[in-house]
Model the fold of this input.
Amino acid sequence: MEMTKPFDTLNASKGKRVVIELTKEKRRLIGTLKAFDQHINVVLEETEEYLDGELKSKLGSVFLRGAAILYISPAN
Amino acid sequence: MEMTKPFDTLNASKGKRVVIELTKEKRRLIGTLKAFDQHINVVLEETEEYLDGELKSKLGSVFLRGAAILYISPAN
Amino acid sequence: MEMTKPFDTLNASKGKRVVIELTKEKRRLIGTLKAFDQHINVVLEETEEYLDGELKSKLGSVFLRGAAILYISPAN
Amino acid sequence: MEMTKPFDTLNASKGKRVVIELTKEKRRLIGTLKAFDQHINVVLEETEEYLDGELKSKLGSVFLRGAAILYISPAN
Amino acid sequence: MEMTKPFDTLNASKGKRVVIELTKEKRRLIGTLKAFDQHINVVLEETEEYLDGELKSKLGSVFLRGAAILYISPAN
Amino acid sequence: MEMTKPFDTLNASKGKRVVIELTKEKRRLIGTLKAFDQHINVVLEETEEYLDGELKSKLGSVFLRGAAILYISPAN
Amino acid sequence: MEMTKPFDTLNASKGKRVVIELTKEKRRLIGTLKAFDQHINVVLEETEEYLDGELKSKLGSVFLRGAAILYISPAN
Done:
């Protein structure tokens, strides 16, 4: 069974909409994954910020520190 | 007595369903372990997210940061 | 598809107004991005500090530790 | 007086039942110590999870991140 | 456009009064910036400590760990 | 004035009873200091665990992670 | 203007009484600074521990982990 590396999976999401759950509060960002590095610092575009499931603000481009991230998942 | 390394155990779970207990809240993910690296960054597929034991959402593919993980255990 | 690095995005914001959401409380700084380094230590100028959405103080120049930062986004 | 290293003590517990107190909540795992590495990532087998002293679940094999561990002690 | 490095900005504050917001509680120190290193460990002199905006104590010289610092800003 | 290094002081406590205050809750361990390493991972023997000043359990041998330790002091 | 390094300041406090504010609770230690290393692990002697400003216990010699320290200041 051939296995991929975690970063391959992130690469496959580049240019696509992703949900990023943050470590702080019940906060998540939904945006287009533009770039990431080995510290999982991430750049999103056309980003929406949700708090407790409610749209809180539209942020445009966001540079997000890896330490702020719980998980990244493709947006449905 | 021959002893295995912790990562050998994770390797044996690749392709199988695992429960991952997170450090944040009473939150756990159940999914198929697709990949992991030395920082214990993990990729799950067909993932379900539980909060306080209740199914909260179906996430599909998830890239999970190692720092977010308390433990990983095979799903029963 | 050509992809940029996260730090390229930060570079493009130099000299411009940015919003920085902090890890502590509901606290954010808005200021002109003057400089940053690989630890994402940041210098802002003409900085305003907001707490729960209310302007709390005008800080002028601020040296902000990377560990204090959740995300950085261009100010609208 | 001849002194041992901390990891020698862990080695002596391999194959035996240990109690692991976690950093999160009043949570502890009791299981058979199968493996550990230099980051104190640990593998337990036939693991029971206790919350506030009450048996919460039987987990079988568990890969536990070192950062999640407060202390490890032989089970009585 | 010529950009400075974050540490250049700190250097320019040496010998001057600065406000340092701490990560712990609503706590800040105001003092004369005497020295700092690459971990942003800082030495202040003639330091005043404020809690929730009220002067709590006069500390004289203070060695402050970088991990305790949210941001550093020139005192008005 | 001749100064010792912090680890010299720990060495001098080997084989003696020490109090270890933990970072989690009002929790302390009292035991015989058997071993420690450069990460201040510690092994205690004949260990007693106290919570809010009350004896909670007798643990025998304990492997304690350095990150769990606030301070170590000789027991009176 | 000649500037000193932060550790020079700590060196100048060796053998003298210092106040150390801890990251945990409103807790501080007052003792004679005996030794420290590059991680700011510190040894105090004739140490008194204060909680919310009240003397809680006399500890004698204390090995204090750097991560537990907010700041160090000469005792008045």
